[in-house]
Design a protein that fits this description.
Layout (H helix, E strand, L loop, with lengths): L4 H25 L3 H28 L6 H13 L3 H33 L5 E6 L2 E6 L8 E4 L9 E3 L4 E4 L1 H4 L5 E3 L4 E2 L4 E2 L4 E5 L7 H15 L6 H4 L1 H19 L2 H11 L2 H20 L2 E3 L2 H8 L3 E4 L11 E7 L5 H12 L7 H11 L7 E6 L3 E6 L2 E6 L1 H4 L7 H13 L2 E7 L2 E9 L6 H11 L3 E5 L4 H11 L3 E3 L4 H12 L4 E5 L5 H6 L2 E5 L5 H6 L2 E3 L5 H36 L5 H19 L14 H30 L5 H38 L5 H23 L8 H33 L1
Parallel strand pairs: 11-18, 11-20, 18-19, 20-21, 21-22
Antiparallel strand pairs: 1-2, 1-3, 3-9, 4-7, 4-9, 5-6, 5-8, 10-22, 12-17, 13-14, 14-15, 15-16, 16-17
Helix pairs in contact: 1-2, 1-4, 2-3, 2-4, 3-4, 3-9, 4-10, 4-22, 8-9, 8-21, 9-21, 9-22, 10-21, 10-22, 11-21, 12-13, 13-23, 16-21, 21-22, 23-24, 23-26, 24-25, 25-26
Length: 764
Amino acid sequence: MTKDPRSLRHVALLVVSVAGLAAGGVLYLSGEREAAWWAWFCATAIVLLSTFVSVASSLLRKEAGVDVIAVLAMAGALLLGEVLAGAIIAVMLTGGGALERFAIARARRELGALLRRAPRVAHRRVGSELLDVDIGDVEVGDVLVVKPGEVVPADGIVGASGAVLDESALTGEARPVELEPGSPVRSGGTNAGAPLELQVTASAEESTFAGIIRLVRAAEESKAPFVRLADRYALGFLAVTLSVAGVAWIASGEAVRALAVLVVATPCPLILAAPAAIIGGVSRAAKHGIIVKGGGPLETLASASALLLDKTGTVTSGRPQVTAVETFGVVSSDELVRLAASLEQASIHPFAPAILAEARSRRVELRFPTGSREKLGTGIAGSVGERRVAVGQLNFVSPGASRTPALRSIQLRTEVEGSSSVFVSIDGALAGALLLQDPVRPDAPRALRSLRSAGIRHIHMVTGDHPGVAELVGDALGVDRVFAERTPEEKVEVVRLMCAEGITAMVGDGINDAPALALADVGIAMGARGATAASEAADVVLTADRLEGLLLATDIARRTRRIALQSVFVGMGLSLVAMGFAAAGAITPIAGAILQEGIDVLVILNALRALVGPRLGPRKTPEMRRLARGLASAHRALRPHIGELVSLAARLDTLPPADAREELERVREMLEKELLPHEREEQRTAYPIVGKMLKHEDPTGPLIRTHQEIQRLVRLYGRLIEQLPADGPRPDDLRDLRRALYGLHAILALHFAQEDELFSLLEA
């Protein structure tokens, strides 16, 4: 790999300065004082010449940095023969630059390892052969085969078999897109179905993905350049230094006093301390799976006052889950899930993993289907034991089904909630439906609240998803504003608007987020899903698939900046004191250089505190993680039963009294024998641990109070069941039963959400 010539020049200058200072020291101790003088002179002159060119270029651009004082000090040292002082300054200057470049190189190296996992080839079909070619070699007219799980490499037309694509990285829409043969398809989506054939209509350079990359580059070019922490104080410090040096020269008539002032004023705290703290922060972030591309993004993140969040895959998991099971006949919800999941074992549909996960949570026994046949993107049918089962769209599983109130209710619910429905028929009769939704990450609400406490004043969500879905998610998270149905270009405009109001951080994970990430003051990519374009455009990459990484990154950035500022101001204060003594003639240039090195050591040791720091968050033990996984498993097993409370309440007036009583008794048994023991065990084992972890912010008191309310409602429900006639509920009983079921569902849904958020702390 070819190295950057500028990096090689910086390394060479560091080697020359260190070698010159060391060689001069050896020669001086050996009695070769003239040779030592020339060694120090040459090392200083070489570094001075290179730095002068860089400083002159900056001044022509009307930019003044801390290097100006170093140039004046080295030049003065050479003119007055104080070459040892000049050599020491040269080492300090090149060493500080090396620290900054090392921080950036380390971050780039970590990121490179992440991005190399992304695919770089396409599969071109030539006759009956399949050839792997570089994506850049794909041409219009080529026929490509995109395997399951691969990214579509170019824009084109779907072949005869159709396609199922996950375009969440492009649009923010979590639901898979089903494309008929001949449909246009954009590059950047992921094949979520069977292998698909694609006739290319635009080369890789002209594709949708390439267009987004061009947006990224344009955004990066329009982004305001970063100003180093050191350079922000350089102009004022330079003015003070030149004033003190001038007064000392004029008052004493000795140029050497002015040089001594320049030497002790050489801004070592600015040149060394800030980069040392920054590299410490970057290294510490890397240990937590946070890749920061240099000091600039870390400093900017520390000052951010506004946060923009993408939705799908960022604040939501990006993986659908079954949220409700609706039954239309005598088949129980467990049996409906068992048959559907058994059949889905042979399916490649994106919803199949979610349905199988629901079956595992219910602990139902699956059988492998026989005679299965799948219509891509529509449904699958086959036999499970002696039952004929079909799973998929309504028109597939039950053609010509009448629009009953139950079906209209499901249609309305999916439209309002932004969920998806999968229908199930058994032996030709419509038996029920499974509702699926992309859930909010359990750690997201707490992470966002903590970010507000840390100083983020405004939190907004920007997404390509529908307004109805986006606003529901925004309400669950408590964001200030939702920008919905935004294209990549429109996301850039939102970022530009927010950046005009204050320092803005943007978090995203998809291809469509890349331009916005590039333009934001600091772009943050959720890199765990392999979103290459987003990771390349971002300034910070969270390799762990948890939003808490953003909170960790912010904490590290703010602490690092605080330490850097402490080091800078303490060092500058000590330098100002030393300047006073130098101006009075109490410090010679060589003594000043040695004194300045002492100040360097002090401020660098302080700056290196950024490498360690306090633990971020409570310590987790393997026992805690096992407990969290066990509790999460119990919640998954109970959640379907909680969802059925609403379903039963809605169906009560349609069920025969005897069947209604049987269903109500079954719910009562679940509440008393499964739910309440779970809540008691949770309170006994988990709550004490969480209380110790969170100390002053222990939330378990209100949760214990909720447990008590749940127990009270279960007791009331039991009394209602005890008072029912033996042949089932009368019409007069239905109102109170519905009220009890709806009340239990509401409090349990909220309680489970609160506990999921809390127990995510144990599992992190």
